[in-house]
Amino acid sequence: MTTYIELVGLLIILMLPFLYETSHIFRYYFKFLIYYGIVSFNSIILIPAFLFRPCDVRNLLSSEMFSKGFLNQEKSEHLLRQLEIWASTFCHRISTLIGLRWELRGKEHLEKDQACIIVANHQSSLDILGMFDMWHIMNKCTVVAKRELFYAWPFGLAAWLAGLIFIDRVRGEKARATLNAVNHKIKNQKIKLWVFPEGTRRNTGELHPFKKGAFHMAIDEQIPILPVVFSSYCTFLNDKKKILNAGNIIVTALPPIATEGLTKDDLDGLMERVHWVMSDTFKQSSTEILQRYATHSLNNKCQTSNNSNTPKLSPVRTPTTGVGDDFIKHTDTVAGTTTVFDKNDYQDVMGIKKSTTLIH
After folding, report:
1. Which residues contact 265 (CB under 8 A, 6 or more apart)?
2. Mean pLDDT in each 10-residue stretch from start to end of the chain (360 residues)?
3. Which residue ranges run through the membrane (predicted)?
4. Number of domains in the chain
5. Has residue 312 been placed in a domain?
6. Would you list the DSSP string of 100-166?
């Protein structure tokens, strides 16, 4: 019986590489299993340490260690330092394991020691990996999350002990009361509050209307809004078709938008301004990612095709004078680069760029 079970187990292990390479559905679920599994494992390890300093946003940092507890200060600091650095390292590795690369722009805005409301677009639970990648930059920061996430133990319990704020999205009045209770604390302790103002995550290639809660908070305490924009996931993620490939994401932290002197009468105007600047940045960064994806796809097509009629991609180079009639000079105003293609290559690249808004 034992031998039979071992053989079945061995067969499953041998099948994993084959399934991973041949089935995008298996690959989709396998990557999310790695993601959720490592996060849950880290949560189990960190919960005992967080219990010494419950519901404190500093629990999420590896640079600040707790100084009170049943252990003496030196030992407690060393213990929590080792646990948090170890856990943080593993969380950073998740993106590498599933093939995601985060490119942060505007880091200097996140580094400022100031209270602010960070508003970010919400496309997938993968957003959390992007937050892991920049968490050490933001110093004290906490997140507004839906109440249902608290019950996803062990992660939910660890998140609560780390100071995350859970709100009931169904009961609007209760959610506002919860946010009002922490608003003054955020300003006094110079905490950054991360909010997804769209509410529900949607990977549709555009920003959706914002809810008012974050903007009410910013005006009430006269603290700035700091927009953070994740470029589109459409080149590597399609939840309906169960596709999760390797991909690059540009994360742009924009300059803070001041709220000093604003009142409730300015709420709609503030929301429109923030939505506009985030939408514009989203379109620009997504266009840049899409062009990279299109060029990469075309290169792969040219390398793998055995058809002699398939045009070969011209080497990408900085154009010089004397570009002839057989070549086209394409300037990308978003990326700030200029590329020279021959005419056939250019048509192929632009064809991919225009048609590739979602993974097919």
Report:
1. none
2. 75 83 91 90 79 60 38 50 57 86 93 91 92 82 80 81 72 69 79 88 88 89 94 92 93 95 93 95 92 71 55 38 45 44 46 44
3. 7-26, 32-52, 149-167
4. 1
5. no
6. EEEEEE-HHHHHS---EEEEE----TTHHHHHHHHGGGSSSEEEEEEGGGGGSTTHHHHHHHTT-EE
